[in-house]
Specification:
The complex is a heterodimer of chains A (722) and B (228). Chain A has 722 residues and is an alpha+beta fold. Chain A has 25 helices and 28 strands. In chain A, 35% of the residues lie in helices and 23% in strands. In chain A, strand 12 and strand 13 form a beta hairpin. Chain B is of the alpha/beta class and 228 residues long. Chain B has a single domain, classed as Rossmann fold. In chain B, 23% of the residues lie in helices and 26% in strands. The chains are: A alpha+beta (722), B alpha/beta (228). The interface between A and B is medium-sized, with 29 and 31 residues.
Chain lengths: 722, 228
């Protein structure tokens, strides 16, 4: 069965292994590998599964914070009271680019099973999407397909999609990004792990195994985007009905204590689960492939080992409990078969119809040949020199600016997602952060998801800190201090020094920022190779941040609520336009970002939470992309409550995107005590004007709120009616 | 009153309804598995939202063939109280317990949003605690909720006062005559697309759904109590 030397190297290369790697396999195995063995190593060593180029940087992340953390399994988490809250982001970029609906759908399914592997019930999903411009039909179809996929899978499976963020930039036009974050809860004593132990049965659970997704992690996810159509067979096809039944059957079995260990079959399917579960428990596994319920006839052994068929789990179960597991899974219409056993010897042994197909030490599988991509320091970007031409018609310019796909409401997207199922959604999509109540607890949790490739492309280090700062502000706007974060890191080809340098700088920025904030990163995902013949994507780290909401009654809306409230900008005013969407809109080159002062940022978050607790605020919204003018517009359109600004504002003041700022409205009678408090706390603030009427007016310009509202809420719908 | 919440594989609002009945309104509540051949003495059966058996053929098309539906039909014919919400409504029309059918939304997309729903008939055991023409705030979340029925049936339904809820302030899914919920002639079977269980607690920013459940729980001397 062993491959001959020449065909070995050829086959290895087709599987994504280079000559050095193949030689290393030969040396460590002490013989030529079989086809199945080579296939197994190729998927397990793929960048997507092995994190070879990234994992050494993660050891610098803070892993503990103000509450106990769970780190090291498929998903990480925190413990609040007796409850474990587990969460993670995962990407499904290349599959979504090739097959938008199923690529995005399986992205949702995959991350849900990561949460499920911890024995936690998935309670919410959020997604972060990036597309090129929405000008061409293909781009619109891709966008629609991804939203369809998330809607189809997420809605059917009964996990609410409670928030997210979407942005557009030409760099994503041939390589869209689909990052999904999932959150789950479990009693802290019932958290499951993937640690196998010897002397138990190994069971495959869920759907049948087919030929789909073969090479998904190695050929598709660990290479740049080229020759798209040929890669279509590497995309997995999901089935939300099986996904939903798998959740219920797994949790029912877990609640009865039937599992020793369990792991989701995602990337690299059976190879990944057998090797990683064995390694986690310092043991091995012996598997008979003929016992696997298969969807197709005559599958070869390497196909079984590489298949990424969805809705499957691998479980280690004590022999006497296997029939009970079978009963539960059969009740839910799912497969559950004993396919082998765990052994003390640290090897993965695969048989097919009793003849050996592979026998590999687990260490060989999980410890790939290290790679050290070239590290070049990033060239210093030129300073923030820019000059603004004289603006003739601010009104028209403003209306055009507001129509930018980056700034308009994404309601068209989230109205297609069931964001209420499970009846926990207290703050739905469309606000700064989503908030869930936890049934049976007086508190809830708040989640913010943030990404901004524009900032990170200008300054990866500072740009990634901007994300952290904005996520902290998002949470502050619903009265919550952050407790932990997860990251989804989307970059270009790491073997190209410029992409790798961006990755390292972003990571350094995140690491330093999280240390300053005392926020642990408990889980994460890396997606490299986001490059197409058009070039690489903007460096796009995504941050998901979670905090505990002590009092759900303190939350206020983000938009203006009443006539005659006083409007304030809390935080430093800022006049530096560098890094802003406005400069990009004006086609003015610029490569820097305004300064970020962590001390002020923290103070602003802290005071916002205090102001909410003391019921000073009637509305509260953080400033982000698009600056003050965009924030004002959002506050006005939410309820159709206008505003009149007294202070004349410069272009710089209206459009800059400096951090550390929050826009609030305060009842007239609380004006004085509010100002006194801010002065006493030495918080910079600026009185802007008063709410009321049906217009937004400033600088002698007037905008009807219904006109703004039409632009804000209906533009995306119009774009997508094709 | 003993409440039974039906569980098909693929149901996903089962635990939400269960929570409202048991935790919010303190009623004895059990799950009824789709393969069961008894209703375990329940006085009120709820078919919850979701995607029964995946709904790949047509919403409710498989569920109507399940063993529990035989029991529910017998129960309904004897006057037992049956409520179908969202997918539950689809199951009720598919199985002939309610007239009409639910087609793909007019815009072809899944829609999740709050809607305004008007109470058309308060002389049903499900709506006795509402005021006539009262406008309720209730969420919808469905891809196939456009109510359709032939003209003759519609006029007889109107005569029999079987139209219980209508959307007002807009028609989110293109339903015929703005219909959001209907009952049978005997008024003991109700189906509606909006989710009353999602607006039964103040923390969820709406409590208009609560009185639907309370109307049923406040019944006494109804034929169903003689069944037990």
């Amino acid at each position: 069965m062993n491959l001959q030397e020449i065909s070995l190297f050829e086959t290895a290369e087709q599987l994504g292994l280079n000559r050095r790697e193949t030689e290393n396999i030969l040396e460590r195995l002490g013989r030529n590998p079989s086809k199945t063995e080579l296939a197994m190593v190729s998927v397990e060593w793929s960048e997507h599964c092995s994190y070879r180029r990234s994992r050494k940087f993660f050891k610098n992340f803070p892993r503990s914070g103000s509450v106990p953390t769970l780190v090291g399994e498929d998903a990480g988490g925190i413990i609040i009271d007796d409850l474990a809250i587990v969460f993670k982001i995962e990407s499904h970029n290349h599959p979504s680019q090739i097959e938008p609906k199923h690529g995005a759908a399986t992205g949702v399914g995959g991350i849900i099973r990561d949460i499920l592997s911890c024995g936690a019930r998935p309670i919410a999903v959020l997604d972060s999407l990036r597309f090129g411009s929405l000008s061409g039909l293909n781009h619109k179809k891709l966008f629609q397909g991804v939203v369809d996929g998330i809607s189809w899978y997420g809605n059917s499976i009964g996990v609410p999609t409670i928030g997210g963020e979407t942005d557009f930039h030409p760099s994503y036009s041939e390589n869209c990004l689909v990052n999904v974050m999932c959150i789950g809860t479990a009693s802290k004593n019932e958290i499951l792990t993937s640690k196998a132990k010897p002397g138990c049965a190994v069971m495959i659970l869920g759907a049948r195994t087919g030929r789909d997704g073969i090479g998904g992690c190695s050929i598709l996810a660990s290479q740049e985007m080229r020759a798209e159509l040929e890669k279509r067979p590497t995309v997995q096809i999901g089935d939300p009905y099986f996904g939903k039944c798998l959740i219920e059957a797994t949790l029912e079995s877990a609640s009865k204590g039937l599992f020793v260990a369990v792991k989701d079959m995602g990337a690299a399917g059976l190879t990944c689960t057998t090797s990683e579960m064995s390694a986690a428990g310092s043991c091995g596994m012996e598997i008979e492939l003929a016992k696997i319920p298969a969807r197709e006839k005559n599958m070869e052994s390497y196909e079984f080992m590489m298949s990424e068929s969805q809705e499957r789990m691998l479980a280690v179960v004590e022999f006497e409990k296997t029939s009970e597991v079978k009963n539960i899974f059969h009740k839910w219409g799912l497969e559950a078969e004993v396919i082998g056993k765990t052994i003390p010897e640290e090897k993965v042994k695969i048989f097919y119809h009793h003849s050996p197909a592979a026998e590999i030490p687990t260490q060989l599988l999980i410890e790939p040949l290290p790679v050290h991509p070239e590290i070049k320091s990033r060239p210093k970007s030129p300073g923030s020199q820019y000059s603004i031409p004289k603006i003739e018609n601010l009104k028209n310019l403003f209306l055009k600016f507001l129509e930018l796909p980056s700034l308009i409401s994404k309601q068209w997207i989230w109205n297609q997602y069931d964001y209420m199922v499970q009846t926990n959604t207290v703050v739905p999509p469309g606000q700064d952060a989503a908030v869930l109540r936890i049934k049976g607890k007086p508190w809830g949790i708040a989640v913010a998801l943030e990404g901004n490739g524009r900032y990170c492309s200008k300054d990866p280090f500072l740009g990634s800190q901007y994300l952290l700062a904005e996520a902290v502000r998002n949470l502050a706007c619903v009265g919550v201090m952050p407790l932990a974060a997860t990251d989804g890191l989307n970059f270009g080809n790491p073997d190209k020094p410029e992409s790798y340098a961006e990755f390292i700088s972003c990571l350094e920025g995140l690491t330093q920022g999280c240390k300053i904030l005392n926020i642990p990163i408990v889980s994460g995902n890396v997606s490299f190779y986001n490059e197409s013949p058009n070039g690489k994507i903007l460096p796009t780290p995504i941050i998901g941040m979670i905090g505990k909401c002590e009092n759900l009654a303190h939350i206020v809306p983000s938009g203006f609520q009443n006539q005659g409230d006083k409007i304030y900008l809390i935080g430093p005013q800022g006049t530096d336009l560098s890094g802003s969407l406005f400069l990009e809109f004006m086609e003015i080159q610029n490569n820097s970002l305004p300064e970020l002062n962590w001390e002020i940022e923290r103070k602003i978050a802290q005071i916002t939470i205090e102001l909410l607790e003391a019921k000073f605020l009637n509305s509260c919204h953080d400033l982000g992309q698009g600056g003050l003018i965009t924030c004002l517009c959002e506050c006005v359109v939410e309820k159709g409550c206008g505003a009149k600004l007294e202070k004349k504002l410069s272009i710089e003041e209206l459009f800059n995107e400096s951090p550390s700022r929050i826009l609030v409205s305060v009842s007239k009678e609380k004006k004085e005590s509010f100002e006194t408090k801010l002065i006493a706390e030495k918080i910079p603030f600026l009185y802007l004007g008063e709410t009321g009427g049906d217009k937004l007016s400033f600088n002698q310009l007037e905008f009807q709120t219904n006109e703004l509202s039409k632009i804000y809420f209906q533009t995306l719908e119009q774009i997508m009616s094709f | 009153m003993k409440v039974g919440v039906v569980q098909f594989p693929g149901s996903n609002c089962d635990s939400d309804v269960f929570y409202v009945c048991r935790e919010v309104l303190n009623q004895e509540t059990i799950y009824l598995w789709h393969e069961e051949k008894t209703l375990h003495g329940c006085d009120f059966v709820i078919l919850p939202g979701g995607f029964s058996y995946g709904d790949y053929l047509r919403p409710g098309a498989m569920a109507k063939l399940s063993p529990i539906l035989t029991e529910i039909k017998n129960f309904a014919f004897q006057g037992g109280m049956v409520l179908g919400i969202c997918n539950g409504f689809q199951v009720l029309t598919e199985s002939g317990l309610l007239p009409g059918s639910l087609l793909k939304n007019e815009n072809g997309r899944f829609i999740c949003q709050w809607t305004s729903v008007r109470v058309e008939n308060i002389k049903t055991p499900f709506t006795s605690l509402y005021r006539k023409w009262e406008s309720l705030k209730m969420p919808i979340a469905h891809g196939e909720g456009r109510y359709f029925v032939d003209k003759n049936t519609l006029s007889s339904m109107e005569q029999e006062e079987q139209i219980v809820f209508r959307y007002d302030l807009g028609n989110p899914n293109g339903s015929m005559d703005f219909i959001a919920g209907v009952c049978n002639q005997k008024k003991n079977v109700l189906g509606l697309m909006p989710h009353p269980e999602r607006c039964s607690e103040s923390v969820l920013k709406g409590e208009d759904g609560l009185r639907l459940f309370q109307s049923v729980f406040s019944l006494s001397g109804h034929p169903l109590s003689r069944l037990a």
